[in-house]
Amino acid sequence: MPSIQTFNDFMTSTGPAYLTSADQVINEAVKNTYAFSRLLKGKTSEQTIQGGTEIRDVIMFDDSRTYDHYQPNDTFVWRNPQVTDYVRAPWRFHIDHMSWTDAEVELNTGETSASTKVAYKRLKRIKEQRMWTSMLNGFEEDLWAVPSIANMESDNGKLPYSLPYFLTEIAQNFGGALGVRGTAPFTAASNASTTVMRINPFTENRWTNIVELYNSEPNAATPVSTQWAKVNTTALTANTVYAQGTTYTPAVSNLFNAMDLMFMRLKYEAPSTRQQYFESDNLNRQMILTSRAGVQQYRNALRLSNDTLVSYQDASYSSPAYAGIDVTYCSDLDTAAIFPAVSGAAPTQSIAGYNARTAANGAFTAFGTETGGETIVQAPRFFFVNGNYLTPIFHSRRYFKQHEVLRHPNQPFTYVQPVDCWSNLFCNSRQRHGVVAPINLA
């Protein structure tokens, strides 16, 4: 059948670019937002495409201080500290495909060569649009997948690292300058681990993310209420979500104060001299990701806190921001079941109810959505993500590679064209990210 062979050759020899425009198809399968693409924005191929058997980077957690003072004629003791560590991530393999049948191609074949070309291009566009939408939606859902040691940390796993694997609200108070930080990602009790990209955050305390707590009692409907100025005086029970290890009394106040503290803790300034040996920490790729409820809560707090609106005729606050950083709606956070929960009776939304839900090392019995009935603390989270230190890395040999058309062995009139990709989400600094998490002070 020359027409089906012609179409197969056309699909094999042409990539996703089009010489002329084909008829547009309205794509209703899209998500409201895509955080994955924001992590790639503005980055060069040198930053996002690599080769090799795995993804690696070198990190220095400690200066192993050799600085000292001396008097003339003192005798010195010289040291050669070994201060570097490797973080590594295995490649993960992704695949999607396009398929078509004899009937689809034959019935779209025109009477002339020109009409056939137009019909082929339109059919090709539809097939590619569906496949790329499926693949990119899959990448976005992977970004917010439930952390899994077996599937993410293990070399034998299938899933790429997710953002909640690196930014966890399971926190421990390290005290001093470190303060409250997220440690190991929360997983099922049978799948607990203390490593993140092969490094133990309980040993290397700087391999942790920043955590700040805010009072969730003022909700999205009434974000600025009598509870706004309330300050916490109650200790958290040991081995609860935000108090892994030992008990402590966290400083909890309103959402704006929590964001103030988070912003200061995430900002690392290099000294004025020898800057070539320090990270150039700018916040040009800083983003604040939250759910629809989180954006609405922040908007309403701005409206009720300000004397005037942005414009006297515009009450929308269409792009709410903090310190010039957009508070961005991430649609997957509306439904992502990534927050610690307990199976059975709904937890009481109060400090007492929170303290009653104890577990060790982040090993909780269930996962819930942000406002799910079994979620331990039911309120929006605000993820502070620095795109300079969280990057999707793709393998140079398998960057969305489009393969030859295959004939299905059990369906002789069906043809398949696979597209595969090797990648993983790579984090080379956890302490430059943070999560503003809720706790109800009622």
Q: Catalogue the unreliable spans.
A: 16-25, 187-191
What's the alpha carbon Rg, rounded to whole Å? 26 Å
Widest sheet: strand ordering: 5-6-8-20-15-9-11-10
User: How many DSSP H or I helices?
Assistant: 10
How would you summarize the topology of this molecule?
Layout (H helix, E strand, L loop, with lengths): L1 H12 L21 H6 L4 H4 E2 L3 E7 L23 E7 L1 E10 H6 L5 H31 L5 H5 L9 H4 L4 E3 L6 E3 L4 E2 L20 E7 L39 H12 L19 E5 L1 H14 L15 E2 L2 E5 L9 E3 L9 H6 L6 E2 L1 E3 L13 E5 L3 E6 L5 E2 L3 E2 L6 E14 L6 E6 L3
Parallel strand pairs: 1-16, 7-13, 8-20, 9-11
Antiparallel strand pairs: 2-3, 4-19, 5-6, 6-8, 9-15, 10-11, 12-14, 15-20, 16-19, 17-19, 18-19
Protein architecture, described:
This protein has ten helices and 20 strands. The strands form five sheets. An eight-stranded mixed beta sheet has the order 5-6-8-20-15-9-11-10. Strands 1, 4, 16, 17, 18 and 19 form a six-stranded mixed beta sheet that branches. Strands 2-3 form a two-stranded antiparallel sheet. The protein is globular.
Explain briefly what this protein structure is:
By secondary structure, the chain is of the alpha+beta class.
Describe this protein with a few key phrases.
442 residues, alpha+beta, eight-stranded mixed β-sheet, six-stranded mixed β-sheet
